[in-house]
Design brief:
This protein is mainly alpha-helical and 136 residues long. The chain is built from six helices and no strands. Helix 1 runs antiparallel to helix 2, helix 2 packs across helix 3 and helix 3 crosses helix 4. The longest helix has 25 residues. The termini are far apart.
Length: 136
């Protein structure tokens, strides 16, 4: 039997290595997500970035997770966009987390505080002025 032009006649030698690499990345991603869930009750935002990192590892190693991610992207594009930015080749971690912090601040002020004075925005601007005086 002749092989078609451009196809391989012998099995791919890197197939087993690729499968082991994907499986190990998937396992590490699941462990990182579990660690993030365990860290989440502690004070501070420690669990959220750890869970995001675990989800990124899972998305890079699992085709099924990618399919679910694409479905979620069509259903809730604003929620999925930060993860898409973190999945790029050279992700901008600081900018993504800063954008999410501003989004969370806006949501808290809109839904929880419901005041006209916007205390979180004033506090953030005051902290920025103090930082610039001290280090700028």
């Amino acid at each position: 039997m002749q092989a078609l032009p451009g196809t391989q006649t012998r099995p791919n030698p890197g197939g087993l290595f690729r499968w082991l690499k994907r499986s190990s990345m998937l396992g590490v991603g699941v462990l990182v997500v579990i660690a993030g869930i365990l860290i989440a009750p502690l004070p501070g935002p420690g669990g959220v970035p750890v869970i995001a990192l675990g989800l990124i590892l899972i998305l890079r190693s699992s085709y099924r997770a990618k399919r679910y991610f694409i479905r979620a992207q069509y259903a809730r594009p604003r929620w999925v966009y930060p993860f898409r930015r973190l999945l790029r080749r050279n992700p901008e971690f600081g900018q993504v987390f800063w954008q999410q912090a501003l989004r969370a601040e806006k949501m808290v002020e809109k839904n929880v505080l419901r005041r006209r004075r916007r205390p979180l925005i004033r506090m953030r601007k005051k902290m920025r002025r103090m930082w610039r005086r001290a280090f700028g």
